[in-house]
Amino acid sequence: ADCAIASGVSTLKPSPPKQRAKRRKISGNNRFILIGRQLTVNPPLYDPLSPETDQQLRPNLRRELIAKRQALPDLERRDAELTERLLQVLDALEPETLGAYCATRGEFDPMPAVTQWLAAHPECTLALPRVKEATKEMTFFAWAPGEPLRPGPYGIAEPTGEAVLNPTTLLVPCVGFADVGLRLGYGGGYYDRYLAGREEVYTVGLSYACCELHQLDMQPHDQLMDLVLTEDGLYGLDALSLTLVD
Ligand SMILES: Nc1nc2c(c(=O)[nH]1)N(C=O)[C@@H](CNc1ccc(C(=O)N[C@@H](CCC(=O)O)C(=O)O)cc1)CN2
Ligand SMILES: Nc1ncnc2c1ncn2[C@@H]1O[C@H](COP(=O)(O)OP(=O)(O)OP(=O)(O)O)[C@@H](O)[C@H]1O
User: Fold this and answer.
1) What is the pTM of this model?
2) Sequence-separated (6 or more) residues with CB below 8 Å from residue 219
3) What residues are in contact with ligand 1 under a 6 Å CB criterion?
4) Which of these, 193, 111, 204, lies nearest to 157 by C-alpha position?
């Protein structure tokens, strides 16, 4: 079944986005631990990491994953495959306002797919984030391919306009991910903070297959991605519940 899901994007039948009132969520203050495809609730089946140990390990994990993706062979093929998959998912979701990002540190660059999709769907508006380091806030501003960008915090390019937009579909870069849609970012908590209370936003994580994590403690503030795309497959709770039609 894994292979069928991984290779079957073009035959997937996602439900129309308008029927999705809220982003998928696992509620409550329980401690969730992910082992393979199993999401375990208290009491865990194995000794979990203490929160302190988990917090100490995360910076190393981030460094390792970033180094791994920056050393990936066949990057051109992988990017072409991920671009194709992203285009298929955009076709299925038909976003009204699409939030994207300017790739940094070896992240998958969504712009080739986004630019191509926008050219065919001029009714869709694009937005890019600007962050405030002091408050760890993120705001999305309208931007179109070709418009100016300026360097922002962390060396990430930012839009220069003043029109605030609230994306209905958000492309989210993931340093690491677990298959239910759990995400590891750079540690600023920007996306978790932005998405808290915005459950109507449909989230599409983007990562490479080598950054899949098989064990990651879920933190109370973690926002699940509805889908995660890599060059090899489709993950997240929406992917797991999708049926394949041949
Ligand atoms: N392309 C892109 N743009 C993005 C994000 C992203 O992940 N990718 N963001 C997603 O949030 C926001 C920026 N978030 C960031 C948060 C922290 C660091 C950072 O450099 N952190 C420190 C310490 C990290 C740690 O605790 O391990 C560092 O790496 O030195 C960089 C970006 C907004 N824009
Ligand atoms: N909704 C929230 N409200 C307040 N603080 C939050 C919220 N979400 C996350 N945080 C805080 O942000 C910090 C970083 O969170 P985490 O380690 O999950 O970041 P990340 O998702 O890897 O990073 P990023 O989203 O920037 O790429 C944590 O200390 C966490 O407590």
Assistant:
1) 0.87
2) none
3) 59, 62, 101-104, 107, 129, 131, 138, 154, 156, 173, 185-188, 190-191
4) 111
Residue 59's CB is within 10 A of a number of other CB atoms, namely 11
Of all protein residues, the one whose alpha carbon is nearest to atom 11 of ligand 1 is: 190
**Coil, helix or strand at residue 152:** coil
79 in Cβ contact with 147 (< 8 Å): no
Tell me the pLDDT tens digit for each residue of 107-143: 999 999 999 999 999 999 999 999 999 999 999 999 9
Task: Confirm or reject: Cβ of 153 under 6 Å from ligand 2.
Answer: no
Q: Is 205 in the pocket of ligand 2 (CB under 6 A)?
A: no
ipTM above threshold 0.95 = no
- Note whether 129 and 158 are within 8 A (CB): yes
The pairing of beta strand 176-178 with beta strand 169-173: unpaired
